[in-house]
Amino acid sequence: MPEILSQQEIDSLLAGLTAGKSPGEIISKREQKEVVPYEFRRPSRVSKNQIRTIQTIHQSFAEMLGYHLTSRLQTPVTIQVENIDQLFYSEYILSIEKPSVIFILSAGEGKGDIIFELGIELGFVLIERLLGGSGDSAFEGKKKMTRALTQIEQSLIRGIIERSCTELEKAWSVVDTYKFKISKYESDPDIVQIAPASEIVLVISFIVSLADKSFRMSMCYPVFVIEDSLTKMTLQKFMGVRRQTPEEYSKYIAERIKTTKIPVSVELGQVEISIEEILNLNVGDVILLNTGVDSEVKIFIAGKLKLYGKPGVFNGKKAVKVTRISNNEE
């Protein structure tokens, strides 16, 4: 059956004839199709829609980790996804500076490992801020910046990475279930082997803004680790991935505050004694305090006097019954 031309095609044909073109030129132009180049040496295994979903997941992770670091370091911290690339694993390893702060994370039983990499400068800034410093001394001299972390420094950074694992699990939960945990720490990227050199990996690069400076960190997913998740990234799933609103984050913080544990201590009384009396103390000696048997005791919350109470016993354990609230002048 001969092909029937549409009205638009007929109009184009007439316009072409008016312009002096032959019917063959017009028809051949209509039949031309756009040629999409294919890179055989670097095949793309993750589609653009899947990339957008992964970017949204990791931007949500970056925001939650930024909120945590702001609270932990007592300074504004913002983290943004810079870009997402598909590379050979060997190319990614060559892009990491030496030494670096590299944590290998297990994605769960039978799922494989991923890499969470912090630049060495960012690592030292985080450590100094955790210890109460300003973070500026991390830039004083090159000698300090070219060494690997000590065991104590690794322990400090490990706490941040463990929290990152928790936030990363939450971010991925809209698509799939992962149980991230620290598997190993390395400072030399050349000895980190989580995939074959020719394996395609997904590299998420972040920009961390802290103390008026910007730093880079990255995550590396071998595609085979998240292959099952990629098949689940339908349009419906993508629409379900979104960032938290300020109201939702305020509610999240309020819930976390409610479960925060605060030390509470009770002061039975005080007394001043001489050094000689202290040196002569023995087992069985009695120290008289400045409070009576029926006197109220002071109750301290996080080191501050907040309540008064009466000591006693409850369910076989020592206890204090609150009698009144302390005013600010006491």
TrEMBL record:
Domain of life: Bacteria
Span of domain Flagellar motor switch protein FliN-like C-terminal: 255-325
Pfam families recorded: FliM, FliMN_C
Any single GO BP term: positive chemotaxis
Membrane topology: Peripheral membrane protein
Record's GO cellular component terms: bacterial-type flagellum basal body; plasma membrane
Predominant place of localization: other
Record carries keyword Cell membrane: yes
Keywords: Bacterial flagellum, Cell membrane, Cell projection, Chemotaxis, Cilium, Flagellar rotation, Flagellum, Membrane
Gene3D superfamilies: CheC-like, SpoA-like
SUPFAM superfamilies in the record: CheC-like, Surface presentation of antigens (SPOA)
Localization per Swiss-Prot or TrEMBL: Bacterial flagellum basal body; Cell membrane
Family as reported in the entry's similarity comment: Belongs to the FliM family.
Function: FliM is one of three proteins (FliG, FliN, FliM) that forms the rotor-mounted switch complex (C ring), located at the base of the basal body. This complex interacts with the CheY and CheZ chemotaxis proteins, in addition to contacting components of the motor that determine the direction of flagellar rotation.
Protein name from the UniProt record: Flagellar motor switch protein FliM
Upper lineage: Bacteria, Pseudomonadati, Candidatus Kryptoniota, Candidatus Thermokryptus
